[in-house]
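Entry 14. Ran structure prediction on the chain below.
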Amino acid sequence: MPHFDPDPNLVFEILVFAAVFSAVQAAWGLLRVGRAKRTVNRRLVLTEQGLALGDMVIELRKQRGLTASGERMLRWDWFADLVVHSGVVFRPRSWAIVAAGIAATAGLIALVVSHKPLIAVAAGVATGGLGPLAYLKFKADRRAKALSRQLPDALDVIVRSLEAGHPVPTAVALVGKEMPDPVGSEFGMVADEIAYGAPLEQAVGSMAARCRHPDIDLFAATVRLQDRSGGNLTGLLRMNAHTVRERHKLRLKIRSASSEGRASAMILTGAPLCVLGILQLVTPHFYGEVIGEPATQIGLAVMGMWMLLGNLVMRRMIDMRI
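Output, structure tokens:
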């Protein structure tokens, strides 16, 4: 039999790689478990603090950027809707401090690079204003996708609870206790408002106003129809869950069909910027004195506008909503 003599250095490198890989997997698992636990317990923290039901309802509304009566705190409707839809805890003072820090950092970097105060001020204002808005938009889109994915399971929990003989408020409260955010917090707020004295139709309507999601609107319409005209709520919610699942599948199919267009848009947009960055790093004087000519700057501005227009057209082509 041939004799196998392994290289000690190779064995040591394999063992180091296995140890690092296992440590990364363990850290990632602990991070996911901790994040899931925080998500599930976010609404239940107020319950553990021993707050009264009325105080808890008011506090939950304030965390979403709403007043004690459920109205929006902010004057700008579009920004108020974005804050409510994002699900981020409403802390205007902290947000202002973070935005000011981002603006100051971006302005300082722009000043060091360009040595022009006007460009530094413009970069700071744009980054400090658009950065938080982009973050809220990202959180709102992520929350909307999670709602669409979790809502059928929440409706199944309500249906099974109703079939077991529980009343509707108990079934709704069960979703708030057993399911993670965002659907757990939304249904938990519905259960709290019902226990606080609001009728089911009004509580579900408030949830639809907070979420502004087509699937939640369908659920609210189903509850409103059953409340006004009667019927089997269990059967209606079962059909509702089936409809939401089919709509979610169709959205995934549309996203898969439009993936080529999205990839093309990212490549066509990123390739010129990457080439420009590489040229500036490898050969800073590649363009020489031509870059300072008015015709060159006008041409670059026109090309940038054409890139922006092309991205808007491609986004319009692949943005199919249900």
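The two ends are 67 Å apart (CA to CA). Will compare against last week's run tomorrow.
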